[in-house]
Amino acid sequence: MSAQTTSKAGPAGFVSSRRWLLWSGIAALCAWVLVPIYLVALGALGGRQGVYQWPKTGLPTGVSLDPFILFLKTEGVLQSFLNSLGAAGITVALSILLGAPAGYALARYNFHGKDSYRLLVLLTRAFPLAILALPLTVSFIKLGLYDTIIGVGLIHTVLALPFAALVTQGIFMGVPRELEEAAWVFGCTRVQAFFKIVAPLALPGIVATAVFAFVISWNEVFAASVLTVRNRTLTAYLLTVLSESPMHYRFAGGLMLILPSVVFIFAVRRYLFAIWGISSK
Amino acid sequence: MTKNRSWIPYLLILPSVAFLALLFIVPLLQTIWLAFSDNGVPSPANAQRMMADINFTRSVKNTFLLTIAVVPVQLAIALVMGTMVAKVGRGRETILWVWTIPLGISDLAAGLVWLSILQNSGYFNSLLLGLGVLERQASWLSYQTPVALFFAIAVAEIWRGTAIVMVIIVAGLNQVPKEFREAAEIFGAGPWTRFWRITLPLIRPALQSALILRTVLAFEVFAVVYALGGRNFPVLVGEAYTWQNQNQNYGVAAAYAVLIMIISLAATLIYLKAIKVDPERLP
């Protein structure tokens, strides 16, 4: 691809100026993504003095971990962090347990109602979360699920499950059917063949799906805020204390929300495009 | 595909269908009922109360303006990113990873990130001071500066939401056969013609998914706004949140939710009609 453009583009000066333009464009867009994250990290690590320092330089002066640790020790922060982990854990477990079998059915069988099922799954993407969270408050109060991490996990699963079903469909389609059939010939039952042959091959993709379910739950704000009072997730906690907390606490909260997600997106970067390529096919 | 033992696929999808019926279909119907009833009788009272609310018109206007401002810019940036990265050999993976980082960042965190830049003693004002444009701290996020607040929120949304469009577009571009572009090149088509006549029509399914997803998400904008402007910039989801949490009025909150749903569905239908895609290539 690149060799072609080079050979077509004529004089060498022109070529290099085009390359230069391309790379400066790429660098600018990378900076557009990274610099704001760097700046909020400075805000989180600069503490009270950092916030009021004027004018700011953008250099890491007076930065230490103490303000961030102080934020972690604030009442409610650690608990809401654990709550976030709990809700995300439930979301991951449920969306894989319910979504992966559906994905397998979509990948391997032709059945009546397959299209209606896919429509149901896709519809969930077109509806705002607000429409689910409001009446669930009432039902959850009746069921004793209001203000619990299980309740939050359940509603986050509504978001992650359709995604898990569609993505695992693509992953199971990528496992050659012949391998599974060979296992049947050699005397495995369907269940055995699935766990011995298909599951190990699909595992990395399923782990990537799980990571996505985790990030979906970790980042969700609205439902978590509406459905909890004391057992808040980190996002819900930050949203409700937002107006009364000092600036550097807000930045520390922002950084704390960002760090795990960035690590997780890094872990699944190879799957990102495959996943969306499949689910938008 | 196996046809015998046809109960197996139903057994496999049953748990997820039951789950979505209980936690998606039922609440959906409940919200619609909640919005259009009053004390158990059908009534337009909630909808009327919503429309009489002082923030109603502003929140509708703000949500629409924000969507109109944000979505096209995100699509344009995503297309530029996709075209650029197609020309890169080594380093492609790293660049793509950096560009997808915002995908993992919540709207609340994105709001807080831009708050650190745009607050009064923040980096943006420092930069303007350094350039000699400003003499003292200016405030961009107050109720007295609605236009600046609008741009601040739009920038934060563009920063956060472009990644998902980019991922879908790059995935779509990857599926375009190389031969098409090479053929066009042989017949003398320039880069612009190739882009408009070959690439863009071929990535229609990706464009459609990206636009639907991004537009629906843009109508749901809430936490970015809340982090940057508090309640100075009313949007639809924010109003639903306030009616539910502060006013404890589930009916009006539900009316807002239904309104957002109607707008989202209308937008989806418009995209489905406007960007025609082979039925076989639909998701």
From TrEMBL, chain A:
<keyword id="KW-1133">Transmembrane helix</keyword>
<dbReference type="Pfam" id="PF00528">
    <property type="entry name" value="BPD_transp_1"/>
</dbReference>
<feature type="transmembrane region" description="Helical">
    <location>
        <begin position="119"/>
        <end position="143"/>
    </location>
</feature>
<feature type="transmembrane region" description="Helical">
    <location>
        <begin position="20"/>
        <end position="45"/>
    </location>
</feature>
<dbReference type="InterPro" id="IPR035906">
    <property type="entry name" value="MetI-like_sf"/>
</dbReference>
<feature type="domain" description="ABC transmembrane type-1">
    <location>
        <begin position="81"/>
        <end position="268"/>
    </location>
</feature>
<keyword id="KW-0812">Transmembrane</keyword>
<keyword id="KW-0472">Membrane</keyword>
<dbReference type="InterPro" id="IPR050901">
    <property type="entry name" value="BP-dep_ABC_trans_perm"/>
</dbReference>
<feature type="transmembrane region" description="Helical">
    <location>
        <begin position="149"/>
        <end position="172"/>
    </location>
</feature>
<comment type="similarity">
    <text>Belongs to the binding-protein-dependent transport system permease family.</text>
</comment>
<dbReference type="GO" id="GO:0005886">
    <property type="term" value="C:plasma membrane"/>
</dbReference>
<feature type="transmembrane region" description="Helical">
    <location>
        <begin position="193"/>
        <end position="218"/>
    </location>
</feature>
<keyword id="KW-0813">Transport</keyword>
<keyword id="KW-1003">Cell membrane</keyword>
<dbReference type="GO" id="GO:0055085">
    <property type="term" value="P:transmembrane transport"/>
</dbReference>
<protein>
    <submittedName>
        <fullName>ABC transporter permease subunit</fullName>
    </submittedName>
</protein>
<feature type="transmembrane region" description="Helical">
    <location>
        <begin position="251"/>
        <end position="272"/>
    </location>
</feature>
<dbReference type="InterPro" id="IPR000515">
    <property type="entry name" value="MetI-like"/>
</dbReference>
<feature type="transmembrane region" description="Helical">
    <location>
        <begin position="85"/>
        <end position="107"/>
    </location>
</feature>
Automatic annotation (TrEMBL), chain B:
<dbReference type="GO" id="GO:0055085">
    <property type="term" value="P:transmembrane transport"/>
</dbReference>
<keyword id="KW-0813">Transport</keyword>
<keyword id="KW-0812">Transmembrane</keyword>
<feature type="transmembrane region" description="Helical">
    <location>
        <begin position="63"/>
        <end position="84"/>
    </location>
</feature>
<dbReference type="GO" id="GO:0005886">
    <property type="term" value="C:plasma membrane"/>
</dbReference>
<dbReference type="InterPro" id="IPR000515">
    <property type="entry name" value="MetI-like"/>
</dbReference>
<keyword id="KW-1003">Cell membrane</keyword>
<keyword id="KW-1133">Transmembrane helix</keyword>
<dbReference type="InterPro" id="IPR051393">
    <property type="entry name" value="ABC_transporter_permease"/>
</dbReference>
<dbReference type="InterPro" id="IPR035906">
    <property type="entry name" value="MetI-like_sf"/>
</dbReference>
<keyword id="KW-0472">Membrane</keyword>
<dbReference type="Pfam" id="PF00528">
    <property type="entry name" value="BPD_transp_1"/>
</dbReference>
<feature type="transmembrane region" description="Helical">
    <location>
        <begin position="211"/>
        <end position="229"/>
    </location>
</feature>
<feature type="transmembrane region" description="Helical">
    <location>
        <begin position="249"/>
        <end position="272"/>
    </location>
</feature>
<feature type="domain" description="ABC transmembrane type-1">
    <location>
        <begin position="60"/>
        <end position="271"/>
    </location>
</feature>
<feature type="transmembrane region" description="Helical">
    <location>
        <begin position="147"/>
        <end position="173"/>
    </location>
</feature>
<comment type="similarity">
    <text>Belongs to the binding-protein-dependent transport system permease family.</text>
</comment>
<protein>
    <submittedName>
        <fullName>ABC transporter permease subunit</fullName>
    </submittedName>
</protein>
<feature type="transmembrane region" description="Helical">
    <location>
        <begin position="96"/>
        <end position="117"/>
    </location>
</feature>
